[in-house]
Amino acid sequence: MNLSKELAERARKKGICKEWHDELLSLKDKDKMIKMYLRGIDFCLSNDYPENDFIRSYFKGAMEKYGVFLDDAVKVENMPKCVCLGACSGNVLADNFNACEVFVKHNSEIVITAKDNAFVMVDVFDNSTVMIHAHDRAKVCVNRYGGTVKDFADNEAVIKIQEKNKKTY
To answer: Rounded to 5 degrees, what angle do the CA atoms 44, 33, 3 make?
Structure first.
């Protein structure tokens, strides 16, 4: 099977634009495919693209270094992006002056700790659960499309939760 051709066909069925479809067709290695997944994360998450079984079959073992996890125990520190799919569980830490984007989907359960002057953006979907601890002068902004969010902020830390009142982007 030609992996890029299969991904492009699946994306076309989900309504991807021609420019991204053509770019996907041109990709030859998994690293570039994973980077494109992260660039187009809004399309991918809103369309459950590609499906978790497809990701499991073709990308497990290659995607984790980019912060993409599926059914994994997650322990991430100061990674620019963290995508938790399936039934992930674990911890995400952002500290110092680091910025991080976290996407929590399906049935994942993630604890996010932000401290010092860190800035964290979180998108929460489906039946996922996110516990947020913010300390010092950290800032956390949460877009809740589904799931459960529990939060605790001390000192000058700020957690802002925006209820999106829709399933996805």
So the answer is: 100
